[in-house]
């Protein structure tokens, strides 16, 4: 007997329109849908007229329930797994189920879709060429501060999930430990009250004063500066301005040359140059 296939299906993080045609088809065709929250998933299924049977698979029963679902897969049933919202396994259950399926030589197929961390990163205005995802920060201040201390030197953009009730406390910890970094705070992504606040830690804290924060929060924090000693952003900009006087030199050529001359990564030179060009554009001088 041919084994069934396990489909890991990403679902909307808010707006029900954010689901792929493929995901809808798979959810209709499988013999069973395992869901982190069957009530929430039923809302999605009803919206698209999907009547596939549902069963629960959440963090409290994943170990035991996965074994039962593996038996169904081995018997030839195709199963789709969905979390509450977004992509299963990304700060959600799913890892145990997938690992057990792989161990049983069951085909596991991803059906890609929304991820809150990536959506927030997309609109943060912070570098996206490399980033680190940490999921939820510890709820207790001591543990949270300890984690922040451990990533003080991280140069990649960092993405966290946070409770609205702890947001301001967390931002204060970030300001004290990581410094007044550039950040973006997104809440209620894809929903009616979607909002993203951008600026330094201090600026965002000030903008939140007297407000009651609601909704799911995704926090994007800029990485530690990596500029080499003796080569400041101002010097890079000055050298870029000088090199740009030569009409035969393209921006790309100048960036390549500055990277070689300063021994700085090309992507870092690129960031400084883009920031400078944007400032000129804002000032009407470019």
Could you characterize what this model shows?
This protein is an alpha/beta fold. It folds into three domains: 110 residues, Tetrapyrrole methylase, N-terminal domain (Cobalt-precorrin-4 Transmethylase, domain 1), CATH 3.40.1010.10; 98 residues, 2-Layer Sandwich (Methyltransferase, Cobalt-precorrin-4 Transmethylase, Domain 2), CATH 3.30.950; 50 residues. It contains eleven helices and ten strands. Strands 3-2-4-1-5 form a five-stranded parallel sheet, with helices on both faces. Strands 6-7-10-8-9 form a five-stranded mixed sheet. β2, α2 and β3 form a beta-alpha-beta unit. α3 runs parallel beside α4, α6 crosses α7 and α9 packs across α11. The termini are far apart.
Molecular shape: elongated
Low-confidence stretches: none
- The first-to-last residue Cα distance is 68 Å
**Could you name the CATH homologous superfamily of the largest domain?**
Tetrapyrrole methylase, N-terminal domain
Secondary-structure arrangement, i.e. CATH architecture of the largest domain:
3-Layer(aba) Sandwich
The structural class is alpha/beta
Helical element count? 11
Order of helices and strands: EHEHEHEHEHEHEHEEHEHHH
Strand order of the largest sheet: 3-2-4-1-5
Do you know the CATH topology of the largest domain?
Cobalt-precorrin-4 Transmethylase, domain 1
What is the number of independent domains? 3
Mean pLDDT metric: 92
Strand content: 15-25%
Name of the CATH first level of the largest domain:
Alpha Beta
Largest sheet: 5 strands, parallel
Write down the Rg: 23 Å
The helix content, as a percent range, equals 40-55%
Strand tally:
10
